[in-house]
Amino acid sequence: MISIIVAIIVFSILILVHEFGHFIVARMNGVFVEEFAIGMGPKLISKKMGETIYSIRILPLGGFCKMTGEEENSDDPRAFCKKSVGQRMAIVVAGALMNFIYAIVAIIIAVSLMNNVTLPIVDTISPNSPAEIAGLMKGDKILYINDTKVGIMEDILFETALLNTPEKKVNLIIERNGEKKNITTSLNAGIIISAIPQELEGKINLKVGDFVVNIAGKDVYYIKDIEKELMNKNKVNVQVLRNDKIETLIDENTKTLVINQTRIKRVMGFSPLEQKLDFMESFDYSVKKFGYFIRTTWVSLSKLVTGQVSFKLVSGPIGIVKYLGDTYDKSVNASEVFMDQVVNVSVNLLMFSALLSANLGVINLMPFPALDGGRLVFMFVELIRGKPVDVEKENWVHVLGLALLMILMVFVFYNDIMKLVNGIV
Hints:
Blueprint: H1 2-28, E1 33-49, E2 52-67, H2 85-113, E3 117-125, H3 130-134, E4 141-145, E5 148-149, H4 153-161, E6 170-176, E7 179-185, E8 191-192, E9 211-215, E10 218-219, H5 223-232, E11 238-242, E12 245-251, E13 254-256, H6 262-268, E14 270-275, H7 279-305, H8 317-333, H9 338-364, H10 372-385, H11 391-421
Antiparallel strand pairs: 1-2, 3-14, 4-5, 4-6, 6-7, 8-9, 9-10, 9-11, 11-12, 12-13
Helix pairs in contact: 1-2, 1-8, 1-9, 2-7, 2-9, 2-10, 7-9, 8-9
């Protein structure tokens, strides 16, 4: 129940932020807003203030800002269709822009509440690891990885996650004592299973040839690390490289692809520096974190469209609700002190809502019918032609786009349900 409540609050805030962007810019440009609604379906609450109806509807999965002349011709001088192309573009873009602003503000607040943040600076190095062999030293600041600029630690995580196999080498540009240096390091850490010890048989789905890299959140270097953990627990998470993919084996029937912070220590053999930031540093970090959210959203969407990533990995509302519930539980259980619990919940929910808000902004600007980006396409066509596209024809295109989006949503809901049934999310 708590996960549903949290999800409704988060979704409602993001929808409110997005639609408010359209609303306020429309009002600034003299457009008559007939209704401002949060949610879809039948009305729960409705009140008319001034000329505009404000409503909350039963399904918290969307919202709208209904403007006169948005979907039909109108002679009203305050109609959306009577405004210049530039004004209409500003109104359409304002929703995504407000999502981006919210994301940055949410990150700033979250970072200010955190005791420490993880920076792309080397703190400790594991003995005989690829990092030590390559010559990385404590205090080295990583500036680039494979020609990708590094702003935060997650940039390194994401770049290494894009590699096909952990045996590949990565090129780093680091800063050491004010000087830039080029370093090439490999990503091979962990152990290969050449035989299954008797005490492991039947306890976990390990196979000969598996490349074990992490167990119960700890990097693996020796077979005894696995034996030690399995002696004390019935089930543990074991990360292995199998068929060029990282898999987490929980039991014989559950496999999920997991990429997390421990991947860095495994693939390179160093732990990053953690420290508290002042206000200006927090602002700079927050902007970089926002940029990371935008970049990863765009790259992930690109890989989905091109078939490089399976649609089965996509999570919809059900998956997000489950994740929010898990995040809430983990945040509360991380401490027994009430104020620490409040801070943990606030930080994690703010950061996740910032990610969702950035996602929402990017997706809405995609040039697809029924989305804000699709409407922008028609406005650019109007600029080129010197006259608008016929309203009825444009509406039919958006209706078709909406139908396709609904089909996609059905698939995503089905995908979420199957993942719940299989215990993956």
